[in-house]
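**Sequence, structure tokens**
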Amino acid sequence: MPTTPALVWFRRDLRSFDHAALHHALHAHGAVHCVFVYDSTILDALPRSDRRVDFIHASVAELAAGLEQLGGHLTALRGDPAVVIPQLAAELGAADVYCNHDYEPQAIARDATVAATLARAGRRLHSFKDQVIFERDEVLSQAGTPFSVYTPYKNAWLKRLREEPGALAPYPVEALAARLAPGASRLPSLAELGFTPSNLATLAIPTGMSGAARLFDDFLPRLANYGAARDFPAIKGPSYLSLHLRFGTLSIRHLVRTVCELMARGAGGEGAAVWLAELIWREFYAMILYQHPHVTTRSFKPAYDAIVWETGAEADAAFEAWCAGRTGYPLVDAAMAQLNQTGYMHNRLRMVTACFLIKDLGIDWRRGEAYFALHLNDFDLASNNGGWQWASSSGCDAQPYFRIFNPVTQSEKFDPAGRFIRRYLPQLDALTDKEIHAPWLLPPMLLAQKGITLGRDYPAPLVRHDAARERTLARYAVVKTPA
């Protein structure tokens, strides 16, 4: 065992258990230090009150407490990791730095820079798979090429899991915790990071490892009904774990192992397989981003880059109305209000709002993707990009361009009583369950009787869906090989 100390660099893995990099460092070294870097290259571009920074700050504090309980400590620093990590390794005399893989292009470039800087000083960067079950090129077609369609990928993913059940084995930490370097944790305050508290606490969003565990425990009794409940935003259908998956306050191996064990026992109902399929979608999009990094700026299908989007003052005004939830379509506006107020948006509504921006307003999907990236608590580049390209029909295994969500029928189907709409648009509360989905269809006198004037209390529709659909079909006619 090397006598020199090692450094474990936490990133998207804010937990002190079942942690691949920490496990391997403890096995190989007698003194393991731990660090988290508040990346200034990311933080500098964020608003000063950002729920994600608030969430990370609370989760890092819990990580530090967890490491201290094991006998170690955590150093949290603010700066450019490409500079901070090599400097700290030098200060500690650590010849080896451990971390877990990150698959985003900027992260890959950052890690390459860190590895090169460490190497020039005779040090090494070791990286491990941790945030997914299967990564990069571990799930390939029979021809040895990456999949571009989800269902064959899912089938191959499941086949590999049956053949390799060890992929779900945990990476224990506790047995070797005595090798953690003792010391006092150093954690900057939010103010020292340059941020102010958000409404995270008011929203009662659970943070850290304990918050993730509570959410998963709460979800398991609802798992069997997940397939039926997940599409209805007014009911408690989802797991609400996406934020914790994003920052690694829970173990993906534990989640998949638990659901697979339930299915093997004939438990979990139909919902278990549906939820597992959603976790596989997450890995599918991570694989796509790794294999095709051009998707961050261009369409997965190159032919779709020929589409001419709406631009100019009118398009900018329409985009601003969409951002603010003033489109005149209640389900769309309620969903945007949810996003703006809470940083969360129900998955069905992510599809509805994205499709509306792209195919009703004719606005480039990249503008919506960027808005979601700024506001979603659970923003994940791979999943966000995959979802937006799916909605725009430009991505892998996307909906055909001629399949265009009707925001009114989506509202009637998935929020039939208008419960979700009323939660975020209380000015429409006086409308009946039938009326609330399309208030512009009501006579002005009836609306007035209910205290609503379009254009004053609630916007008139920005566009008429039928006319917008025709414009979209014409816009997408430039695509030579529709899928």
